[in-house]
Amino acid sequence: MSPIAAPDQINPGIEDVIADSERRHHGNDPIADQTMVINMGPQHPSTHGVLRLVLEIDGETVVSLAPDIGYLHTGIEKTCEAKFYQQVVPLTDRIDYLAPMINNTAYALAVEKLLQLDIPDKAQWLRVLFNELMRINSHLVWLGTHAMDIGALTVFLYCFREREKLLRIFEAVSGQRMMTSYIRIGGVSLEPPIGLFESIRDFLNEFPSKIDEYESLLTGNPIWINRLKGVGYISPEDAIALGVTGPPLRAAGIDFDVRKAMPYSSYEKFQFNVPVSTESDVWARYVLRMQEMRESVKICHQVLDGMPEGRIVADAPKIILPDREQMKTQMESLIHHFKIVTEGFAVPAGEATSSVEAGHGMMNYYVVSDGTAKPYRVHMRNADFANLQALETMCKGRLLADVVAVIGSIDIVLGAIDR
Amino acid sequence: MDPAVFGTQAVSEALPDDPALKALQDFATDAKYDRGELTITVARENIISAAEALRQASFIFFEDVTGVDWYPSEPRFQISYSFLSFALKRRVRVVVRLSGDDAVLDSLTPNWPAANFYEREVFDLFGVHFSGHPNLRRIMMPEDWQGHPLRKDYPVEGYR
User: Fold this and answer.
1) In the prediction, which pLDDT does A30 show?
2) CB B101: neighbour CB atoms within 10 A?
């Protein structure tokens, strides 16, 4: 597969878009050659946060566009360097805020690789369970907001009805609805409460019929079909060259899912399909994500059926906080607790990359340690940031209204882009 | 987990059939196999040819590039590239080391469009210059920002 090599196919910056438009203004026929530069966002409801786009349009056709990001840059990578390893976990929640437990998993895997910790089966399976529930959560928000951008407002309310049930599950297990910090270095933070698995199972038994309900609202709807089919095409070569991962890459016909290709957290033990399409348009991405939700339900059922018994954290008293009972009765545990909270724990020097499949695509955490209790460098490679690079290729030559559909279909979260 | 192996010679002996190592055998100045991850160091003038050699060895997906600032030791900047092979289902890390007073290297963006935003990010936050990049402007910080926040001599709480 050959990548796109011509330099003019590299995404322009906003200055290029404006300069190109001004250059075109000096043609012989001022009316025919005239293009207009318009600004979209950062407070535009369809940009899913604070994405700003500068578009050059000829009538209603997009000539070129450039994203302007950084409005949500909070310097999380810099902040990580000033925290202990365990204090970074809550920061990772806030990156892709629609799927915090997937972020936690990616960070925990990288640090565990540095520490060379073995994680017990039960913790691994709980991670898989909540990763998949988070994927459903993320896809529900995507479907609701995407449908709302296109004009189907009802779907938004239906999706948030199911999301509410998920948030209650997350609250039951971690105490928090959104910023859960449930998955920690060495395992998970708490034993699931009694009755939680039954309520998850109730949700899973009911949820496929809800997916049918969304599909009955959308799949046969002529407006939905016309707005989505054939829009936002990207060739598989361009998708690889621009670093696209996740559903947009699989919709372009490339069968790559980190869960299958490079299994982590015992994903190799579960049976599931990776939906792939070749149409590579907004419609294909919609169909693919709907199928992914059904696959996630399958994985969750398998986890609940075969949940192993045992510890939920690794056996490493100098790294993992002891439980409260032990801490208040055993001197040793009290010392460990005090040490971890006040001094953190030293991580052997080295560098490690972890990779997980988040709702939006491949998410990598690159953690560098210099042997102290604080990470020397933490870098997050979120799919959102790379997928945004493909926006120009997908929108070029299409109508202005399609830009909204394409932004929805690549499913970006600005917290993950700006960090 | 296998014990860590350091040095080009030792890594070649430990992994005699590794496709990434074979592809970069002319460019590798140092290599490391640690925690199941292969890291190959190349000289900065070779980064474009090294990336091209990796592409021939089926590492067709550019994942990201980021920096690590080892201030005050020299060479100060470690630029870490990550390439992924769909066929081999694995990744390789390529490292270029740059001194603090001459933090310039060739841009991969003309050949790897995925590098565009990532190189802009490294430029913005570390002040490392990528020559040949078509649009090397700040991406996260405001246009008129002074300094490069991810450098170690930049205070965490910023300048007040």
Assistant:
1) 53
2) 7
- At position B18, the amino acid (one-letter code) is D
Cα Rg for chain A, rounded, in angstroms? Answer: 23
The verdict on A53 and A151 lying in the same domain is no
Instruction: Kindly calculate the radius of gyration of chain B based on its CA atoms and give it in whole angstroms.
Output: 16
- For A148, the domain range is 76-418
| CA–CA separation, B3 and A403 (whole Å) | 50
Closest CA to B155 of B71, B97, B79, B74: B71
Q: What is the mean pLDDT of residues A374-392?
A: 90
* Distant-in-sequence, close-in-space partners of B139: CB < 8 Å, separation ≥ 6: A69, A70, B117, B120, B121, B123, B124
Determine the pLDDT at residue A32. Answer: 59
Q: A3 falls in which pLDDT band (50, 70, 90)?
A: very low
3-state secondary structure of B100: helix
Mean pLDDT over each residue of chain B, to the nearest integer:
87
- Asked if residue B61 belongs to a domain, the reply is yes
Single-letter code of the amino acid located at A223: I
- Domain with B81, as residue range(s), is 5-131
Chain A CB contacts of B37 under 8 Å are 351-353
Q: How far apart are CA A344 and CA A346, in angstroms?
A: 7
Give how many domains chain A has, as a whole number. 2
DSSP letter at B114?
T
Bridge partners for A57 per DSSP: A36, A62
Q: How far is A228 from chain B (nearest CA, A)?
A: 26
pLDDT for res A10: 63
- Cβ of B135 and A13 within 8 Å? yes
Per-residue pLDDT tens over the stretch B42-72: 988 889 999 999 888 889 899 999 999 998 8
Q: Are A17 and A54 in contact (CB under 8 A)?
A: yes
Half-sphere exposure of A319 (CA within 13 A, CB side): 22
Query: Can you give the pLDDT at residue B16?
Result: 76
The reply to whether residue A261 touches residue B116, judged by beta carbons under 8 angstroms, is no
A282: domain CATH number? Answer: 1.10.645.10
Summarize pLDDT for A286-333 with one digit per residue, the tens: 999 999 999 999 999 999 998 898 888 888 888 888 888 888 899 999
ipTM of the assembly? Answer: 0.91
Q: Mean pLDDT, to the nearest integer, of A335-349?
A: 90
> Cβ of A243 and B63 within 8 Å?
yes
Q: Rounded to the nearest 5°, which phi and psi values hold at A105?
A: -60, -45
A75-100 residues labelled b (16+ CB within 10 A) or e (exposed): bbbbbbbebbbbbbbebbbbbbbbbb
Residues forming beta bridges with residue B65, ordered by sequence position:
B81
Are A10 and B135 an interchain contact pair (Cβ–Cβ within 8 Å)? yes
